[in-house]
Amino acid sequence: MFYNSDMDTEMKRFYVIVEGRIQGVGFRGFCMMLAQTYHLTGSVRNLDNGMVEIYIQGMDPNIHSFLDAVSKGDRWIRVDDISCKQVSIKTDEHRFSCLY
Q1: Are 13 and 87 in contact (CB under 8 A)?
Q2: CB 87 within 8 A of CB 15
Q3: H/E element holding 4?
Q4: Which CATH architecture has domain 11-89?
Q5: Is beta strand 41-46 parallel, antiparallel or unpaired with respect to 52-59?
Q6: Of the listed 45, 46, 62, 75, which one is catalytic?
Q7: Is the CB of residue 34 less than 8 Å from the CB of residue 41?
Q8: 23-76 residue pLDDT tens
Q9: Among 4, 13, 21, 28, which one carries the catalytic annotation?
Q10: Three-state DSSP class for residue 79
Q11: Is 46 annotated as catalytic?
Q12: 78: pLDDT confidence band, cut at 50, 70 and 90?
């Protein structure tokens, strides 16, 4: 498990940093597809240091499923490390965005 949680159904928001082979391989689109699948909001963007930053918000079990799927990657994406920190919810957020 990537974060401490009671796996309840409360709305939560996490700040996530992902490391690995994740830039130039469709990782942001992969995250967007997963966020839509799990009915989550937030954003994803590449960082200058080669890592990717994700804000992910939604029901706790859906966030857990999203992070599990992200950690597995695909045949091009390789995730080496994920760090998560719970942050305050954004009540006015209604979709997941790829930022540039």
Answers
A1: yes
A2: yes
A3: none
A4: 2-Layer Sandwich (3.30)
A5: antiparallel
A6: 46
A7: no
A8: 999 999 999 999 999 999 999 999 999 999 999 999 999 999 999 999 999 999
A9: 28
A10: strand
A11: yes
A12: very high
Residue with tokens 């799927």: 69
- Identity of the amino acid at 89: I
C-alpha triplet 42, 45, 46: angle, nearest 5° = 160
Which position has the token pair 């974060």? 3
Sole residue written with tokens 């006015």: 92
Where are the domains positioned within the chain?
Answer: 11-89
Using CA atoms, how far apart are residues 53 and 70, in angstroms rounded to an integer?
12
- Beta bridge pairs of residue 57: 13, 41
Q: What is the pTM of this model?
A: 0.89
Cβ atoms of residues 66 and 96 within 8 Å: no
Q: How many CB atoms neighbour CB 12 within 10 A?
A: 19
